[in-house]
Design a protein that fits this description.
12-stranded antiparallel beta sheet, elongated
């Protein structure tokens, strides 16, 4: 059994209204914003108006947290949704599909030690068919379920 822990530092993605102090807007067919939030987070990218008229992150954008976590990718109604990359100060990185601010769908997670998981995610967990390659280059494939992965097959490079 291989135990795997995916780092999920808290990138505080909240529904703060973007048209508060600290935002600079440029108009056109799409609204682009550059914001600094009260907690020190920064956002640069596309925005749209919500049903209530508030300006929310929608489209392509980059959110940098005060702690150094960076998300670059698709946004929809202030949530990470679609394709994107989430980078952590530790060196860990996730690139793939997001849904409701979570790893969800096909993606690649690179751990701080250089080991890599490529495969399916569901609700921020390794879930489904995937391949894990450790820092020494050994690869296992099979079904992953969170931190457990019973019955993995070691791949041989001939």
């Amino acid at each position: 059994m291989v135990n795997i822990h995916v780092q999920r530092d808290s990138l505080e993605v909240t529904a703060e209204v973007l048209n508060t102090r600290g935002c600079v807007l440029s108009a056109g067919n799409e609204v682009k914003a550059s914001c600094i939030f009260p907690n020190g987070d920064k956002y640069e990218g596309q925005c749209s108006r919500s049903a209530s008229g508030e300006l929310v992150r929608s489209g392509i954008g980059k959110h940098t947290s005060a702690s150094g976590i960076v998300y670059t990718g698709d946004w929809h109604e202030d949530k990470m949704l679609g394709r994107g990359t989430l980078q952590f100060p530790s060196g860990a990185r996730y690139e793939g599909e997001f849904k409701d601010n979570m790893y969800h769908g096909s993606g690649t997670y690179v751990f701080p030690d250089g080991s890599v998981y490529r495969g399916q995610f569901r609700h921020d967990r390794l879930e489904g068919e995937g391949t894990f390659t450790d820092a020494q280059g050994l690869s296992w494939t099979g079904d992953f379920h969170g931190e457990a992965a019973l019955g993995l097959k070691l791949l041989h490079n001939l």
